[in-house]
């Protein structure tokens, strides 16, 4: 490999061989439409969907496989919840560290009559649960927060927030796009009502896959975004009201879900705790290296146990886009510059409008890659400080 990939928060790479094999096997040996026919290949395709539901339910300790809904991505899942649950006059609470996948549909709904409170987080990206409690109103219908920031990696106290929501009979939705697969999640123990996940990040599945966990009984409160063929109750022209068919219309991305299942199996085989320990060690090594480089500012807390394997930083006198360009062209290191689709988070941490350079690691990241990156950043920072001294 002649490059170093540090953009796993956007999409994980490389993918496990088992994921690629599962997709090839489906296309070569099955390929049928699940639930739409009675022949053996259609039945086998349906079995794959059920198997992946079971695997995902096992990963997050969901009580039933049918509480897992497949979507194209986390964004679709979030839109299902927000547009299906909220009505004009309802109040929703979120945090200032959210991705645009949450912020944009919320602002669109705000224009249609919902009330929105954005609870400010600290400059490190942490939220005080008491601030969420204070924001609750009589008409508060939903609390929705990220599990961990895609900008700073800061982990939010979802268990504490869930307790607040449950005590006040409010639905709590967790955006786990950055954490499903790399942080332990127990939706029963943590009292999470709804969890949104994507397949192509820390679950090591393909792009175009994702889903929802919806606690049993809550589905009746949420109107589906679409109606159509489900392969069930074909005699009726009324859309099914039971899970998972209520939220799954049309032919599913079965080949992608087969890959997702292999990715989830990869995570289960490795163990989330083992993955987490590896990422904490890698992140800690990188943070330690950055702490001694003059002219580099790191955003978020410096404790690797309180963040995911995501680190954002800036350099004096060099724009983030320029830093990322130099890393790519001169050092073959791939990163993500700018606002990372989260302008509110950057306003919170003080890096708006230029944004940051974001490094994000995964299970395949090595210590040698981290050391190479630290050396590259030292060189770039040194050149930037020389430019600054020359201008003086």
Short description:
This protein has 392 residues and is an alpha/beta fold. The chain has helices spanning 17-29, 40-60, 74-85, 100-110, 129-135, 158-167, 254-270, 272-291, 320-331, 343-349, 367-391; strands at 4-5, 68-71, 91-95, 115-119, 140-146, 171-175, 194-198, 210-214, 296-299, 310-315, 333-334, 336-338, 356-360.
Helical proportion, percent range: 25-40%
Question: Number of domains in the coordinates?
Answer: 2
What would you give as the CATH superfamily of the largest domain?
Type I PLP-dependent aspartate aminotransferase-like (Major domain)
Per the CATH scheme, the topology name of the largest domain is Aspartate Aminotransferase, domain 2
**What is the helix/strand order?**
EHHEHEHEHEHEEEHHEEHEEHEH
- The helix/strand class is alpha/beta
Q: Low-confidence spans: pLDDT under 50, at least 5 residues? A: 388-392
* Main sheet: strands, sense, barrel: 7 strands, mixed
* Rg, alpha carbons: 22 Å
**End-to-end distance, in Å?**
41 Å
User: How many strands in all?
Assistant: 13
């Amino acid at each position: 490999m002649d490059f170093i990939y540090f953009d796993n928060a956007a999409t994980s790479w490389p993918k496990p061989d088992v994921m690629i094999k599962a997709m090839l096997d489906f296309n070569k040996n099955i390929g049928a439409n699940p639930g739409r026919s009675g022949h053996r290949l259609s039945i086998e395709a349906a079995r794959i969907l059920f198997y992946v539901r079971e695997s995902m339910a096992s990963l997050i300790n969901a009580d039933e496989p049918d509480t897992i809904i497949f979507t194209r991505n986390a964004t679709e899942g979030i839109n299902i919840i927000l547009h299906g649950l909220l009505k004009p006059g309802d109040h929703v609470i979120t945090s200032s560290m959210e991705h645009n996948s949450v912020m944009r549909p919320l602002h669109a709904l705000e224009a249609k009559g919902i009330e929105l409170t954005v609870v400010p987080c600290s400059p490190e990206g942490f939220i005080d649960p008491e601030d969420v409690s204070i924001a609750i109103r009589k008409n508060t219908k939903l609390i929705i927060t990220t599990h961990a920031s895609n900008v700073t990696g800061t982990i939010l106290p979802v268990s504490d927030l869930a307790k607040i929501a449950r005590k006040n009979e409010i639905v709590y939705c967790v955006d786990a796009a950055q954490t499903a697969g790399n942080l332990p999640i127990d939706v029963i123990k943590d009292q999470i009502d709804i969890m949104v996940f994507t397949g192509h990040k820390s679950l090591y599945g393909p792009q175009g896959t994702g889903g929802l966990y919806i606690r049993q009984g809550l589905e009746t409160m949420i109107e589906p975004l679409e109606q159509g063929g489900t392969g069930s109750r074909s005699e009726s022209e009324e859309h099914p009201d039971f899970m998972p068919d209520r939220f799954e219309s049309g032919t599913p991305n079965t080949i992608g879900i087969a890959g997702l299942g292999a990715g989830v199996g990869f995570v289960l085989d490795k163990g989330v705790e083992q993955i987490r320990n590896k990422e904490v060690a890698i992140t800690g090594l990188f943070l330690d290296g950055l702490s001694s480089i003059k002219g580099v500012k790191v955003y978020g807390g410096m404790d690797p146990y309180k963040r995911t394997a995501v680190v954002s930083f800036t350099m004096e006198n060099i724009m983030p886009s320029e830093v990322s360009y130099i890393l790519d062209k001169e050092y073959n290191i791939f990163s993500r510059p700018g606002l990372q689709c989260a302008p509110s988070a950057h306003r919170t941490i003080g890096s708006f409008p230029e944004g940051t350079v974001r490094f994000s690691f995964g299970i395949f990241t090595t210590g040698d890659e981290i050391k190479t990156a630290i050396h590259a950043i030292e060189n770039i920072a040194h050149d930037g400080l020389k430019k600054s001294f020359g201008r003086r």
